[in-house]
Design a protein that fits this description.
Blueprint (H helix, E strand, L loop, with lengths): L18 H12 L8 H12 L4 E2 L2 E2 L6 H6 L17
Antiparallel strand pairs: 1-2
Bound molecules: iron/sulfur cluster.
């Protein structure tokens, strides 16, 4: 990613040629169902992140997390003051 322009509002899947992003995607696929939100919730959360100005190179600038990893967790919520998505538990 060095030398590349920051990718605004990009998720991991959109970071082309980034080996670390690919390994995180592999990790996400392997998280057991009982440790993650359902696909519909995950997709809805990531839609919010994808339209958020705080997402740069797949990282949320509010918390420093990869948005896809944070959005996966049932007990996590959007850390921004306006709470674009909420925890499930
Ligand atoms: S978690 Fe919230 S603040 Fe962070 S990128 Fe997603 S919507 Fe934006």
């Amino acid at each position: 990613m060095e030398g590349q322009k920051p990718c605004l509002r990009c998720l991991l899947a959109e970071l082309e040629g980034d080996e670390y992003a690919r390994s995180l995607e592999d990790y996400i696929k392997k998280v057991p169902e009982d440790k993650r939100v359902d696909e519909e919730t995950y997709r809805r959360r990531l839609e919010q992140c994808s339209s958020c100005g705080r997402l740069i190179n797949a990282v949320c600038l509010e918390c420093g997390c990869y948005a896809e990893l944070r959005a996966l967790k049932p007990d996590a919520g959007c850390p921004a003051p306006e709470k674009r998505w909420l925890p499930e538990v």
